[in-house]
Amino acid sequence: MEDLNIKSLRFPASVNLTLEKIALKLGRSKKEVFIQMVNYFYRSKKDPADFNDEILKTTILKGQREQIGFIKTQENDLLIPIKRETGMLMNIQKKLVENYNLHTLGHNQLVLKNQQQQGEKLIQMNQVITASYERLANKETLKKQFMLILNQYIKGRESFGLMPSGKEKEELMNNVRSQVHLL
User: Fold this and answer.
1) Distance from C-alpha of 39 to C-alpha of 31, rounded to nearest angstrom
2) What is the rounded distance in angstroms from the CA atom of residue 23 to the CA atom of residue 31?
3) Residues 53-62: pLDDT tens digits?
């Protein structure tokens, strides 16, 4: 087997330092970096002495133009329609909110007003029922008291003899009248 590493190249120590820095930065050996540089210049047909390489510039500009063209195409194909549709959706959503506020909230206010009116009517009905109950209770109380007065009157009349005096009759009637007035 033949050794492929038989050629040597001599160059200044400053270039060696630069080559070592590049190799260290790339994480490769000096030999690998050198081989890759030679292959790069061979494939790209670039002149390493020409710092203003027009091919490189045109390639970079062409890449930038392609990227800008791609971005503009994406903008026209995607971003502008998305923005337009989003605007339409926002308008529809605003209209929905306005309709909701107009119809539903208005209806809710009407229902609340009706409920308040019904509540007031229930309070009035409760007051009428309470008053009726009190009147009924008063009526029953009056009946009982009147029955007591009537029973006293009957007992008083029966306690008279056959011929009661006018004074006793008058006293009994005045007593009954005063009790009825107290009712």
Assistant:
1) 12
2) 9
3) 677 677 788 8
Tens-digit pLDDT profile for residues 124-172? 999 999 988 888 888 888 888 888 878 787 777 777 766 667 777 788 7
Q: Are 23 and 29 in contact (CB under 8 A)?
A: yes
Instruction: Classify residue 19 as exposed, middle or buried by CB count within 10 Å of its CB (0-12, 13-18, 19+).
Output: middle
Q: Does the CA dihedral 148-154-158-161 come out positive or negative?
A: positive
Residue 162: strand, helix, or coil: coil
Cα end-to-end distance, the chain, whole Å: 144
pLDDT digits (tens, 9 = 90+) for 29-47: 998 999 998 998 888 877 7
Query: What is the DSSP secondary structure assignment for residue 48, as one 8-state letter?
Result: T
